[in-house]
Structures are given as structure tokens and as C-alpha cells.
């Protein structure tokens, strides 16, 4: 059912895993399927918000589950996603970053397919596929926090964490919540049957100081509903 607090609001959601090219046929990627971000976009649209989904790699079948009212834009790499998100966030009341954005990308993209081994270049540096030099990608969420494209907008991040124990994984999430500084950070403690892909999810939502706000567990649609409930609570009254 529509939520009065979301009527006329603009919500920007990101989903999927970025793919950082290495050469014309290879990339560095991750296991994000885009299901959690897509479920969020659908849930918030069903409550009456105007939704834009910016996605990196997401299977077409997953995108096909979106209602026609969601505006869909593609951004395949972290650098592309930064550009599109900063542009679109200028008009957003809420930004939810469920995408798994690569922290690093290959320092250079070869115009031709890299070979298993190449003759040693004169500078002695290894070439070919045994050593890949990486450079840091922009941190899109941290940039939205430090330089918000629209004052007063609500910023929500995700973090997929692992650890020796649930406690240990959550501790990584707490440190990240403080470091990133988004209003809310939904920490997924990922495991073999939880988190990435066509599996259920479980999140602990923290505020920017790392304090627990709420927990949600279930299908990705159920987790999305719980997060939208929280967004509704956190939106300042008064609308646009
Ligand atoms: O896609 P699914 O298969 O459904 O799985 C969902 C998910 C587990 C991928 C998703 O729920 C999730 O947790 N996404 C974030 C994954 C992650 O580990 O993010 P991170 O810890 O690298 O980054 C934390 C936050 O900063 C995220 O909101 C991310 O979008 C953002 N970020 C990260 C790096 C970067 N360079 N720029 C960013 O904005």
C-alpha cells in the first residue's frame, strides 16, 4: 500500500556488481546478483515513490521483475556509477546504495587480449596475466556523505561482511558504519546460504555511529520491505 511519506519523493537505488575491465574479454567482478537492490527499488515504487535504479551487472531476468514505473539506468563500472549516481542524486530525497562497487580497478585496460605470458619488458616489470596492477576506485557513498548533491537527503549504504563469527563480521560492519558516515548502513553477514545471489538475506541496520537500529531477515523482498519501513520513519516530514 502507498506510504504517505513517500508520495512524490524521489528515491535512487543502486544494484548489482561492477565489472572492471582488464582487456576486451576479461574483467574483475564480484558475486552480487542485483536481487537485493532490485527488490528495494520495486518495494519503494509500490509505496508510491518515484524510483530510479542505477545498476551494474544484473541478469536481465532480475531486471524484468521491476514494475514499469521504475526508471532504469545502466552503469557498468565504479567510475561510470559514480558519474551517474552523482548526476541522479541531485534530484533524490533518498539514496540507497545496494550495489557491490569494486574498491579497485586495473590500472590500465589492454586494447588487445592479454596473453598468459609476454616477453619480459625492458623495465623488468612483469606483464601479461600473472601480475595486474590495481588503482583505487572513487568511494561513491563516502563522496555523497562529504559532498551531498542535495542537502538533507537520506543516505543508506549496504555492507557485505564475513568473519570467524557473526560477532566478528558485525564488528567489521560497525567500523564501516563509522567510517562511511551514511545515515544508515545495512550490514549483511554473508555466508554460503545468505547474502549474495538467489538466497535469503539477513541484515543488521546500524546508524552512522555504529549503533544498531533494527534487524531484518527473510527473502530479499521481505528485507526490502523492512528497509522501506525504516526509510519512511527516517524521512523528515513535509515532503518535497
Ligand atoms: O546483489 P545480491 O546478490 O542480491 O546481494 C546483495 C548484496 C549482498 C550485494 C548487498 O546487499 C550488499 O551488501 N551490497 C554492498 C556490498 C558491499 O560489500 O559493499 P562494500 O562494503 O564494498 O561497500 C559499502 C557501501 O559503500 C555500499 O553501499 C557500496 O555501494 C558503497 N561503495 C563501496 C565501494 C565504492 N568504491 N563506492 C561505494 O559507494
UniProtKB/TrEMBL annotation:
Binding residues for CTP: 103, 113, 138-141, 158, 176, 180
Keywords in alphabetical order: Decarboxylase, Flavoprotein, FMN, Ligase, Lyase, Magnesium, Metal-binding, Multifunctional enzyme
Ranges where the DNA/pantothenate metabolism flavoprotein C-terminal domain occurs: 6-233
Essential cofactor(s): Mg(2+); FMN
EC number: 4.1.1.36, 6.3.2.5
Cofactor notes: Binds 1 FMN per subunit.
Domain of life: Bacteria
Keyword Magnesium on entry: yes
Pathway info: Cofactor biosynthesis; coenzyme A biosynthesis; CoA from (R)-pantothenate: step 3/5; Cofactor biosynthesis; coenzyme A biosynthesis; CoA from (R)-pantothenate: step 2/5
Catalytic activity: (R)-4'-phosphopantothenate + L-cysteine + CTP = N-[(R)-4-phosphopantothenoyl]-L-cysteine + CMP + diphosphate + H(+); N-[(R)-4-phosphopantothenoyl]-L-cysteine + H(+) = (R)-4'-phosphopantetheine + CO2
UniProt-annotated stretches for the region Phosphopantothenate--cysteine ligase: 11-240
Family, similarity comment: In the C-terminal section; belongs to the PPC synthetase family.
Function: Catalyzes two sequential steps in the biosynthesis of coenzyme A. In the first step cysteine is conjugated to 4'-phosphopantothenate to form 4-phosphopantothenoylcysteine. In the second step the latter compound is decarboxylated to form 4'-phosphopantotheine.
Entry protein name: Coenzyme A biosynthesis bifunctional protein CoaBC
Gene source species: Actinomyces lilanjuaniae
Recorded name of the encoding gene: coaBC
Amino acid at each position: 500500500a502507498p506510504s504517505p511519506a513517500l508520495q512524490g519523493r524521489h528515491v535512487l537505488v543502486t544494484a548489482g556488481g561492477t565489472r572492471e575491465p582488464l582487456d576486451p574479454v576479461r574483467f574483475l567482478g564480484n558475486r552480487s546478483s542485483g536481487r537485493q537492490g532490485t527488490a528495494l527499488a520495486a518495494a519503494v515504487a509500490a509505496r508510491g515513490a518515484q524510483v530510479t535504479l542505477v545498476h551494474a551487472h544484473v541478469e536481465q531476468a532480475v531486471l524484468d521483475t521491476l514494475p514499469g514505473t521504475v526508471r532504469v539506468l545502466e552503469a557498468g563500472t565504479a567510475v561510470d556509477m559514480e558519474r551517474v549516481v552523482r548526476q541522479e542524486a541531485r534530484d533524490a530525497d533518498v539514496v540507497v546504495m545496494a550495489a557491490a562497487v569494486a574498491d579497485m580497478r586495473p590500472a590500465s585496460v589492454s586494447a588487445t587480449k592479454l596473453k598468459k605470458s609476454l616477453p619480459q619488458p625492458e623495465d623488468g616489470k612483469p606483464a601479461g596475466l600473472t601480475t595486474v596492477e590495481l588503482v583505487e576506485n572513487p568511494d561513491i557513498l563516502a563522496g555523497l556523505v562529504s559532498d551531498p548533491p542535495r542537502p538533507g537527503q537520506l543516505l543508506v549504504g549496504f555492507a557485505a561482511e564475513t568473519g570467524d563469527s557473526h560477532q566478528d563480521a558485525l564488528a567489521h560492519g560497525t567500523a564501516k558504519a563509522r567510517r562511511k558516515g551514511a545515515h544508515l548502513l545495512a550490514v549483511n553477514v554473508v555466508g554460503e546460504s545468505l547474502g549474495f545471489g538467489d538466497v535469503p538475506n539477513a541484515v543488521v541496520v546500524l546508524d552512522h555511529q555504529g549503533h544498531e537500529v533494527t534487524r531484518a531477515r527473510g527473502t530479499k523482498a521481505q528485507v526490502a520491505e523492512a528497509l522501506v519501513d525504516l526509510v519512511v520513519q527516517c524521512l523528515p516530514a513535509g515532503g518535497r
